[in-house]
Amino acid sequence: MKKTLVLGASLKPNRYSNYAVQRLVANSIETVAFGLRAGDISGVTVATTLLDYKDVHTITLYLNAKRQKAYYDYILKLQPKRVIFNPGTENPELYTLLNAHNIAFEEACTLVLLSTNQY
């Protein structure tokens, strides 16, 4: 299906990135996650090192534009089909890089896309 990497996953249950992992799993979407602290969200291990995931369809971002810079090369190396910029993560600089590498992107809320069957 649409294997998804949640970049900026938080172990705190009140964070949107945490809820996104839960909802992706509930929708039977293969989910992997990267965050600052290792742990588990709904059976998904949150990695603290950048793993070389294969066949990532979507990267959903939960990092602000300034924090995204450290992950540009990683995002491009994974060659996802699309990147979702959740509210507060908009980044025209990264849009330009994604365009140059023919990677689709959208400013959207992963939670809304899932709840309206548009994911």
Structure explained in plain terms:
The chain has five helices and seven strands. The chain is globular and about 35 Å long. Strands 3-4-2-1-5-6-7 form a seven-stranded mixed sheet. It starts with a strand and ends with a helix. The protein has 119 residues and is of the alpha/beta class.
Brief sketch in words of this structure:
The chain is α/β, with parallel strands linked by helices. It has helices spanning about 15-25, 65-70, 70-80, 90-100, 110-115, and strands at about 5, 30-35, 40, 45, 60, 80-85, 105. Helix 4 links the parallel strand 6 (about 80-85) and strand 7.
Topology:
Blueprint lengths: L3 E4 L8 H11 L4 E4 L4 E3 L2 E4 L10 E4 L3 H4 L3 H7 L3 E4 L6 H9 L3 E4 L2 H6 L4
Parallel strand pairs: 1-2, 1-5, 2-4, 5-6, 6-7
Antiparallel strand pairs: 3-4
Name its key features.
globular; about 120 residues; 7 strands; alpha/beta
Q: Terminal Cα separation, in Å?
A: 11 Å
Q: What percent of residues are in strands?
A: 15-25%
Total helical segments: 5
Sketch the major β-sheet.
7 strands, mixed
What string gives the helices and strands in order? EHEEEEHHEHEH
